[in-house]
Amino acid sequence: DVIIKKYSAKMDFDQFLNKPIKSLSKGNQQKIKVISSLLNPNMKILFLDEPFDGLDPLMVKKIEEIFLSLKDITIILTSHRMEVVQEMCAEFFVLKDGKLIASKRTDDESVMVSTNMETSMTPIKKLKYVKKIFERKGQRVILIESDKYSKELQILLLKDKKCTFTSLKDKNLAEEVFEGYGV
């Protein structure tokens, strides 16, 4: 009862505690699921399946803070909300058809640089800090280890007479993870 009151207060849910579950919105039903997942004070592993589904961005942030405040608990979650995964997780895995196809650490400092398709990749492929090159939406995207190499790479790209543009992109975990995996 103390745990329920503690987390319902943090999630602005107090006024709904005595309401039938079926009468609640999808977001409030999701809050019940989150609260019930936290009832065992002795848990060591917490499995969560899409815990942020149906929640507005402010509630997602509150619940993310609750999960991050849990000590000595391993949290395993499934989610399509990569912005939350990036905030909450140290490492994540991509599954397709039940098979592991990739894994990544969220503290990876990689950066994406894009250019037009006509730009030659021959000299770029030889650079040791280039992790991956792929095509997306009529552009060539070059994934590099760190922002510290981006200026050097852009200078090299612009030396190519066929290069009409080059741009640096902020790291977007969702793009980076799902690109090339057909997920």
Describe this structure in words.
It is built from seven helices and eight strands, in the order H-H-E-H-E-H-E-E-E-H-E-E-H-E-H. The strands form three sheets. It has a four-stranded antiparallel beta sheet, with helices on one face. The model has no long low-confidence stretch (mean pLDDT 86). The longest helix is centred in the middle third of the chain and has 13 residues, at 57-69. Helix content is 33%, strand content 25%. The radius of gyration is 22 Å and the shape is elongated. The chain has 183 residues and is α+β, with helices and mostly antiparallel strands.
Gist?
With 183 residues, the chain is an alpha+beta fold.
Number of helices: 7
Taking pLDDT < 50 over at least 5 consecutive residues as the criterion, the unreliable ranges are: none
Helix amount: 25-40%
User: Which strand order spans the largest sheet, edge to edge or round the barrel?
Assistant: 6-7-5-8
General form:
elongated
Count of strand segments: 8
Percent strand: 25-35%
Order of helices and strands: HHEHEHEEEHEEHEH
Instruction: Provide the structure class.
Output: alpha+beta
Span from first to last CA? 42 Å
Q: What about the largest sheet?
A: 4 strands, antiparallel
As a whole number of angstroms, the C-alpha radius of gyration is 22 Å
Mean of all residue-level pLDDT scores:
86
